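Sample entry (302 residues):
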Amino acid sequence: MRTAVEHIMGTAISLAAPDDTDPGVFTTAAQAAYDHLRRIDEIFSTYKPDSPVSRIRDGRLPLNALPEHPDGDLIREVLALCAQLQRESRGAFDAWNVGDPPQFDPSGAVKGWAAENASRILAAHGLTRHALNAGGNVRVRGGTAPLPAAPDRPDGSSVGEPVTGPGAGAAAPWRVGVTDPHRPGHTLFVIERAEGAVATSGTAERGLHVYDPSSHRPATALVQVTVTGPDLALADGYATAALALAGAASAADAYAWLTALAERTGYQSLTVDPDTGVWWTPALRRYAPALPPHPHDTPGAA
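Predicted structure, serialized as tokens:
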């Protein structure tokens, strides 16, 4: 496997491509993608006091000035994504109402959106088969359709590792491992995808960082949400929204919303609660034999 990793946006962003990838193509594509991610970090970092987002937060950059701002198009694209996620989540995802006291913070949408765009850049530079992992938000391209379900297959592969295919250099589905939040260093389950995204949002690594906008209290009813679908920007936002919907008391609202989301859009989800119970939407049933049963009677676990 040909690999690269850089630390950007406060996390390790790793890139993997098959061994038979042309090294020059890999290097050039990786550089372009990482340059893009560094630019996004300069624009959207809430930790850099002079970033455009920090200037929006403290009022130095009014929204009506964005059409003339050099980064205005990118900022408005993220604002539109945040507005879409707010509508679809019934207000659970609210970039203008984050934390206590509430403030503007689009970070819940930026990382997945940035990695989705970086993956497009990789493909445009000729790296059509790759796995890009931005701190647990993974975008894969160029695999083949997953093999038929086989519950007894070993599933300890690492994030972005391709299943071995027939013939030298043959394409195969990518295997995206999702960490068990209750057992650091262990894989809870593995999703096989030829194309698409797997986004995970949770508290295991970053602590309580997602807030219920209705109460301004940290969301604690779920410790991790994984969403998989075609687009990483949406999958990442949906995962964050589900954590917020679960709030501090009950995950029932999150289960109902994720079930409806799967029926409406095809994005599938898996959640882990503080008692180690695992819940999933029906299309992820093929992975169920490797998962512990959920203690609650929920639609996805039936």
